[in-house]
Design goal:
By secondary structure, the protein is α/β, with parallel strands linked by helices. It has one domain: Isochorismatase-like (Rossmann fold, 3-Layer(aba) Sandwich), CATH 3.40.50. It is built from 9 helices and 6 strands. It has a 6-stranded parallel sheet with strand order 3-2-1-4-5-6. Helix 6 (106-119) links the parallel strand 4 (98-104) and strand 5. Helix 2 runs parallel beside helix 4 and helix 6 runs parallel beside helix 7 (136-149). The radius of gyration is 15 Å and the shape is globular. This is Isochorismatase family protein. Pfam families: Isochorismatase. Residues 7-157 form the Isochorismatase-like domain. InterPro entries: Isochorismatase-like_dom (IPR000868), Isochorismatase-like_sf (IPR036380), Isochorismatase_domain (IPR050993).
C-alpha cells in the first residue's frame, strides 16, 4: 500500500499543441487536474516537467493554473526526466522513493522516465488513466513495457482511495467532490 509520506507525483510534459492531440486528451486533462488538486490534501509533493518549453510550448493552461499553486515547472531536454539534473536533485532531496507517474507521451517520455526511475531504485506507480499518447495502441504498449520493467499500474480513483484508506473525514469528503 502506498503511504503519503513516502510518495511523490511526477507529471511529464503535458504541453502545447501536442497535449491537445492525445488519443484521450479530455480524460487525460481531467485526471491530471484531479490529481493536482488531490495531492496537497495528502501532503504529497508534485514535480512538474516540461520538455523544451521554448519550442513545444507551456503546459496546458487548465493544468498549469492548478500546478502553479503548489510547484513550478522544471524544463528538460532529454526524454527521461531523470536525465535532468534539477529534477533528479529535487526528487532525491524529497526523500520519497515511491513515484506516481503521469503525463505524455506514454511510450516515450513517460516510459523512459519510468525506466530510469526503476533503475535508480524507485518504486514506480504509473497512473494508467493519467497518461496518454497520440495513438491508443502506443499508449497501451507503453504501459505494457513499463509493467514488464517492474512498474505498478494504477488509476486515479483507486490511487486516491488507497491513499485515503478510510471512508470518513473531511479529506474523504473533499476527495468525493473532486472525483464526482
Amino acid at each position: 500500500m502506498l503511504e503519503s509520506t513516502e510518495t511523490i507525483l511526477v507529471i511529464v510534459d503535458v504541453q502545447g499543441k501536442l497535449a491537445r492531440i492525445m488519443a484521450q486528451t479530455e480524460r487525460l486533462h481531467q485526471q491530471l487536474q484531479i490529481l493536482a488538486k488531490a495531492m496537497p490534501l495528502f501532503g504529497i509533493p508534485v514535480l512538474w516537467l516540461e520538455q523544451l518549453p521554448d519550442k513545444l510550448g507551456p503546459t496546458s493552461e487548465e493544468l498549469a493554473t492548478i500546478l502553479r499553486q503548489i510547484t513550478q515547472p522544471i524544463a528538460k531536454e532529454h526524454f527521461s526526466g531523470w536525465q535532468c539534473n534539477e529534477f533528479r536533485q529535487q526528487l532525491l532531496t524529497s526523500g520519497r522513493k515511491k513515484v506516481l507517474l503521469a503525463g505524455i507521451e506514454t511510450h516515450i517520455c513517460v516510459y523512459q522516465t519510468c525506466c530510469d526511475l526503476l533503475n535508480a531504485g524507485m518504486e514506480v506507480h504509473v497512473i494508467a488513466d493519467a497518461v496518454d499518447s497520440r495513438n491508443s495502441d502506443n499508449c497501451q504498449l507503453g504501459l505494457q513495457m513499463m509493467q514488464q520493467h517492474g512498474a505498478w499500474l494504477t488509476q486515479t480513483e483507486s490511487l486516491l482511495f488507497e491513499l485515503q484508506q478510510q471512508a470518513s473525514g473531511d479529506r474523504f469528503r473533499q476527495l468525493l467532490s473532486l472525483i464526482k
